[in-house]
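Notebook, student rotation project (T.W.).
Task set for the rotation: take a protein with a known small-molecule partner, predict the structure of the complex, and write up what can be learned from the model alone. Partner molecule chosen: S-adenosylmethionine. Sequence and SMILES entered below by T.W., checked by me.
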Amino acid sequence: MDIVDPAVSDYLLAHCTPPDALLRELITETARAFPRPAGMQVSHDEGELLTMLTRLVGARRAVELGVFTGYSSICIARGMPADGHLLACDVSEQWTSIARRYWKRAGLEDRIELRLGPALDTLRALPAEPVLDLAFIDADKGNYPLYYSELVSRLRPGGLLILDNVLMGGEVLNPAFSDGDTAAVRRTNEIIVGDDRVESVMLPVRDGVTLVRKR
Ligand SMILES: C[S@@+](CC[C@H](N)C(=O)[O-])C[C@H]1O[C@@H](n2cnc3c(N)ncnc32)[C@H](O)[C@@H]1O
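Predicted structure of the complex:
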């Protein structure tokens, strides 16, 4: 299912702040090095949305789950002040080696800390205090309910949690799709809408993006 008509998607891409030379190079290098997984990279309009939301929230402390080659982490870190801190979580040394190279070239290496290992272990080892300004979930879909639970409790009041791929190509709407990942994302969507601690809105941006604001 196309969430948005492809012609509209192209129009949206053409009418947001364009990627700079570094992001364009990262898109090209990722596509060349990892042609199939390259589709996991956030699109440029979604990246711009991440930068804008980070700025609007005034985020200084953030967590990202799912780094890949670093596109979304650059977009988040660019929205933070110089003393901001983004904890970027992934399991792949190979993919994140590209990310680290681009963070350095973007002058963001002091702002982004890479934590290699299962994201759930990393989250559970964080202090329980609600000090996070912003979090972005874009890692393995099967763990979305657990990622949501670990992160929402650590968000400060007014903090923002952003989830990617909440529509799963439209599969969450179709009860016939009940594989583990789809069921987990569908369950997360239900948990969020029933969670009194937050207010939320689901946007048809690319594969669906949910914004969750802690009350
Ligand atoms: C969709 S990609 C992230 C794309 C990235 N946000 C970007 O803009 O390029 C998902 C990432 O999650 C990572 N991942 C998968 N399972 C994970 C886990 N259990 N813990 C942490 N990261 C995981 C993968 O290695 C992959 O890099």
